[in-house]
Write a structure and sequence with these properties.
Length: 98
């Protein structure tokens, strides 16, 4: 799930994650990458970019909530990174289904 969840309405995000993770078999990988929550200026850069290119003012995803939800579904976190990219920044989580 790469750079998608912030485009999903907040009330539908859990279902979107559930739909994605149910397709991952035992031993399989679920990848979550999205915009960083902080610092503010990186988040703002993403918001402006999305407003220009997709016409949406998006709301950031709470990475900790996604992480907790995916772990509760039987996955383990195997990689966690915050990736700065000039004005932007991404959060990356890699999970493996047990």
């Amino acid at each position: 799930m790469v750079d998608v969840l912030h485009h999903v309405p907040e009330g539908k995000r859990v279902k979107a994650v559930d739909e994605a993770i149910k397709r991952v078999g035992t031993g399989g990988i679920f990848l979550f990458k999205d915009m960083v929550e902080s610092p503010f200026w990186r988040r703002l850069a993403h918001n402006i970019d999305d407003l220009i290119f997709s016409g949406e003012w998006v709301r950031q995803v709470k990475t900790a909530e996604v992480e907790a939800h995916v772990k509760a579904a039987g996955f383990v976190l195997v990689e966690s990174q915050e990736i700065p990219r000039i004005f932007y920044g991404n959060t990356l989580r890699v999970f493996r289904r047990l």
